[in-house]
TrEMBL record:
PANTHER family: LD33804P
InterPro entries noted in UniProt: Kelch-typ_b-propeller (IPR015915), Kelch_1 (IPR006652), NANM (IPR056734)
Name the UniProt record assigns to this protein: Cyclically-permuted mutarotase family protein
SMART domains according to UniProt: Kelch
One Pfam match: NANM
UniProt source species: Chitinophaga ginsengisegetis
Domain of life: Bacteria
Length: 381
């Protein structure tokens, strides 16, 4: 009789735990706000690779890059920004129109790893006109909108297009691109220990940039991304890698249904990771092949034909995928959920603000940015 009662008790306990688990059922996507024009601007085109996240319940979007004069294939030059935009919510939870801070980032910057922490918004690495940087900075915004910058230990190597996440007072950054090419490096910094230095962890199984990194169930997940090879042609990955924080070993998990890079993602619910948009490479890969052919072409007419073909591809860019996927760390499987209802942004950061997903600005077509800030309200079953 005791055994029967014990079995019933265990079944009820498991069912109760399962009933309490939060699994995402759907996401309601909407436009939360727009980036306001910067000082001296009448129109805000948006930026790719902004510093973005939360500090003291204030949303910060800063820096980033765009092409203000012309598309790069028409001679346009990338312009790196240092403007800071501040957003707050009203008492109903609606995002109020953003304001342009009188302060700026210490230097123009884009494509860093932005990570919201309990002590502020940390951004690591990135690039500007001088190339990749190893600088790591914590940004904090107070109730008046005043921003303080705290310099943290520099990365062991200058990196751009790297990915990061925060867990139990520790900052993790992975992959990216150095002056020598794509990186397989994986580093951590204990933010709770004064004077702590970056620790070098086990290399990622592949060198990769433009990946998504999220931490869920005590493990680090690195998803998708790409690796530019010496011939100028990139491999785009559909891989899901898991780093066990206890065994300190990387393992390969269930892949995404297609290769994709530069998407956004974050941990949601109790056992899930959301992956949003991304570049499947349909145009990107063709352009890389054409670039390689242009470099090796010796005939001027052939070179011009290839160049015009490349421009036509880029001008007709269809935009990036709107698909959204959920990875369940318990089942180890991906599943599709409802897609974005607006253009899919890449090269930006997704994060939670009071439990709501925020995806600010980013690139929506080759060379084209958006000022739109997307919000995603999570519904759980």
């Amino acid at each position: 009789m005791k055994r029967i009662l014990y079995s019933i008790f265990m079944i009820m306990t498991v069912n109760t735990i399962n009933a309490q688990e939060k699994n995402v059922d759907k996401v309601q996507w909407s436009v939360a706000a727009m980036l306001p024009p910067a000082s001296g601007q009448s129109v805000q085109p948006g930026v790719a690779g902004p510093v973005a996240g939360i500090s003291n319940n204030v949303m910060i979007v800063a820096g980033g890059a765009n092409f203000p004069a012309a598309m790069p294939w028409n001679g346009g030059v990338k312009n790196y920004k240092q403007d800071i935009y501040i957003f707050r919510k009203d008492e109903k939870g609606n995002v109020l129109p953003g304001i342009v801070s009188r302060q700026t980032l210490p230097q123009p910057l884009a494509y860093s790893a932005s990570v919201s922490t309990s002590t502020g918004l940390i951004y690591a690495g990135g690039e500007n006109d001088h190339g990749p940087t190893d600088k790591v900075t914590q940004l904090t915004c107070d109730a008046t909108g005043h921003i303080d910058f705290t310099t943290l230990p520099s990365l062991p190597v200058a990196l751009t297009n790297l990915s990061g996440a925060y867990y139990q007072h520790t900052l993790y950054v992975a992959g990216g691109e150095s002056v020598n090419g794509p990186s397989a490096k994986f580093f951590s910094l204990d933010l709770s220990t004064q004077g702590a230095a970056w620790q070098t962890l086990a290399d990622i199984p592949v060198a990769v940039s433009h990946a998504v990194v999220a931490i869920q169930d005590g493990g680090v997940y690195l998803i998708g991304g790409r690796r530019k090879n010496s011939n100028g042609i990139s491999d785009i990955f559909n891989t899901t890698y898991h780093y066990d924080l206890h065994t300190k070993v990387w393992t390969l998990k269930d892949p995404l249904p297609y290769p994709v890079s530069a998407g956004t993602g974050l941990a949601v619910g109790d056992h899930e990771i959301l992956f949003c948009s991304g570049d499947k490479g349909e145009v990107f890969s063709k352009v890389e092949v054409l670039n390689a052919a242009i470099i090796t072409a010796t005939d001027s007419i052939k070179k011009e034909t290839l160049t015009n073909e490349k421009k036509a591809l880029l001008n007709a860019h269809p935009g990036f995928t709107k698909e959204v996927w959920l990875y369940n760390t318990t089942t180890g499987r991906w599943k599709a959920i409802n897609a974005l209802t607006m253009e899919g942004p890449v090269t930006t950061t997704a994060f939670l603000w009071n439990g709501v997903i925020m995806i600010p600005s980013g690139e929506i077509k080759a060379g084209v940015r958006t000022p739109v800030i997307i919000s995603g309200t999570l519904f759980f079953n």
